[in-house]
Amino acid sequence: LLFPCRTQAEMAHTCRGTINLSTAHIDTEDSCNIVLSNGGRTYHLKANSEVERQRWVTALELAKAKAIRMRNNQSDDSGDEEPASQSDKSELHGTLKTLSSKLEDLSTCNDLIAKHGAALQRSLSELENLKLPAESGEKIKAVNERATLFRITSNAMINACRDFLDLAETHSRKWQRALQYEREQRIRLEETIEQLAKQHNSLERACRGAPGLSAGSTGITSTTKGSVQSAKGEASDEDEETEYFDAMEDAPAFITVTADPKHHRRSGSNLSGASEGHPEDWNLEDSVFESSNQSNYNESTCKDLLPKKRRRSRIPDKPNYSLNLWSIMKNCIGKELSKIPMPVNFNEPLSMLQRLTEDLEYHELLDKAVKCESSTEQMCFVAAFSVSSYSTTVHRTAKPFNPLLGETYELDRLEEFGFRSLCEQVSHHPPAAAHHVYSKRGWTLWQEITIASKFRGKYLSIMPLGAIHLEFHSSGNHYVWRKVTSTVHNIIVGKLWIDQSGEIEIVNHKSKDKCQLKFTPYSYFSRDVPRKVTGVVSDADGKAHYVMSGTWDEKMECSKIVHSSHGSTSMEGKQKTVYQTLAPKVLWKKYPLPENAENMYFFSDLALTLNEPEEQVAPTDSRLRPDQRLMESGRWDEANVEKQRLEEKQRAVRRRREAEAVEALEEGKDYEGYIPLWFERKVDAVTGELICVYKGGYWEAKERQDWSICPDIF
């Protein structure tokens, strides 16, 4: 790109990269924005006005046309091709061998021309010296023979030269592309090394600016942006074997130093019942905060979760069907995922309603939270529960079935685990599901989730929209939070993997306690553990009480804060805060996957039971969906046919509903549209949002087996 009125020195400081215009796509987003894309590189340019944008677009189109002409003339060529493979190398060696052979032919022809030329010259000299007419005939004949040989040899040389030139011309473009590719690779490597050098330099400056590590204490500090962490000693009267965490905005990533809690004595702590800071005091009498002994934790929880009713522990193995993903997805870039017709090959045999219900796998965390007397302690369990819902997604890269409008799913575990859950698909465009869970152990959870998803070519972003509400019956504590963004990487090439990123703010609207959780996105250059989650629990006054740390696919720990102090100021002018904590307690740890899980879609023990057939469920229940049942049985071809039938049936119902809406509009009547079966829309008193809440009647209808209001959707 050419920037007018700029010197070469200015270009060196302002250039942000290069793009090959001959293969670039030039698009306009709006009146002022221009998008240049070339394979994996995309540049967004913004003009000051629409007139200036048009001038730039015209200039870029002219430059692109010139670049294409230069490429066709072999003066310039695209460097966007892949490096030479083994077959390309063999072809190149064969070409070089052929060129060498042609060159040898040229040398032979050159020798023959020199030889016959000398003979011709001698013959001509002899002809000049002739005096007898009788001899002239023989000599002239000899000259003609020599000339004929010379002509034949010259033609052979010319043909050999022509073959050589044609061959060189054919392969010159490939050589230029290979050379250009190597040059670009070198430039990219130099840029990467330069970035690493800058990061290294920044880390060195940060380390030099941090105070030294004293022998009397151990600590960890970090700036409020969470970009640099360094060792720090705190000159205070605290005992030596305690933990220090950096407090910073946006829920930082913490480094934990294990301490011996028996050596800690501090008066006046008075945080969540931790009298004098003894670690034994911040465990409730019923051991709400479990000790860090993992075996005791697993044994106690597993005993509580043993079901009274025997349920299935496996499903048919996933068939090994191959499918060309790119042939299906290349025309889907930028489209809403719910509007793309997808074969079941990309699905798992569960619906989105069942995946939503799967969040209750670690419901015992809420049962323990009921027993907490302190709202900040209760917040810790709620935070651990919010993180636990992502534990099964680390290997679950398949897409759940989109529920049909009016589809429901119940999970009645009232006798086994004390709760029962009901989901209903209340909207199709945009897809929205309402969820209600009641537990006789003292809590109720409800939510309405809308899934917004975009396919970006290389990755898929899944953005759950909507608030999750949790209320405890005895205390009246009402917690609200929202989910983070899920990203599925390597959609086209490579192994699929999923990441969670973003922040969760959990608010207790009664006590005004808050918990800020940060899901750190994966970074190649980061030294942190992958899938890291960190956070701080604070009260209504903003005073921090607990530090949360762990990973969303393994476990979450809670560390009680016994003292906080302000540290040194960072280079950016940010004030640091150091949290001194007791040893961490494990609140949640992921259950191991069942045996042979890799052949059963990586389902957990709970997920294996979600689609298990049950009697007396509603006729709209996901367990009765035929395409999903066929897929689970391994009959994918039949499942694809059935899936298309159900989707076409749903489209026909939607077209009929749209026709009724038009007819009502023409007659001047109100048209209500689709009305959910078991939920109703109300304005939430806490968030002020219009959400679907359970209006009752489902479990009573199940007891009577009266499903007359259920539509025929299957």
TrEMBL record:
<feature type="region of interest" description="Disordered">
    <location>
        <begin position="70"/>
        <end position="92"/>
    </location>
</feature>
<comment type="similarity">
    <text>Belongs to the OSBP family.</text>
</comment>
<dbReference type="InterPro" id="IPR037239">
    <property type="entry name" value="OSBP_sf"/>
</dbReference>
<dbReference type="GO" id="GO:0005886">
    <property type="term" value="C:plasma membrane"/>
</dbReference>
<keyword id="KW-0813">Transport</keyword>
<dbReference type="GO" id="GO:0005829">
    <property type="term" value="C:cytosol"/>
</dbReference>
<feature type="region of interest" description="Disordered">
    <location>
        <begin position="259"/>
        <end position="313"/>
    </location>
</feature>
<dbReference type="InterPro" id="IPR000648">
    <property type="entry name" value="Oxysterol-bd"/>
</dbReference>
<keyword id="KW-0175">Coiled coil</keyword>
<dbReference type="GO" id="GO:0015485">
    <property type="term" value="F:cholesterol binding"/>
</dbReference>
<feature type="domain" description="PH">
    <location>
        <begin position="1"/>
        <end position="65"/>
    </location>
</feature>
<keyword id="KW-0445">Lipid transport</keyword>
<dbReference type="InterPro" id="IPR001849">
    <property type="entry name" value="PH_domain"/>
</dbReference>
<feature type="compositionally biased region" description="Polar residues">
    <location>
        <begin position="289"/>
        <end position="300"/>
    </location>
</feature>
<keyword id="KW-0472">Membrane</keyword>
<keyword id="KW-0597">Phosphoprotein</keyword>
<keyword id="KW-0446">Lipid-binding</keyword>
<protein>
    <recommendedName>
        <fullName>Oxysterol-binding protein</fullName>
    </recommendedName>
</protein>
<dbReference type="InterPro" id="IPR011993">
    <property type="entry name" value="PH-like_dom_sf"/>
</dbReference>
<dbReference type="InterPro" id="IPR018494">
    <property type="entry name" value="Oxysterol-bd_CS"/>
</dbReference>
<feature type="compositionally biased region" description="Low complexity">
    <location>
        <begin position="212"/>
        <end position="227"/>
    </location>
</feature>
<dbReference type="GO" id="GO:0097038">
    <property type="term" value="C:perinuclear endoplasmic reticulum"/>
</dbReference>
<feature type="region of interest" description="Disordered">
    <location>
        <begin position="207"/>
        <end position="242"/>
    </location>
</feature>
<dbReference type="GO" id="GO:0006869">
    <property type="term" value="P:lipid transport"/>
</dbReference>
<dbReference type="Pfam" id="PF01237">
    <property type="entry name" value="Oxysterol_BP"/>
</dbReference>
<feature type="coiled-coil region">
    <location>
        <begin position="179"/>
        <end position="206"/>
    </location>
</feature>
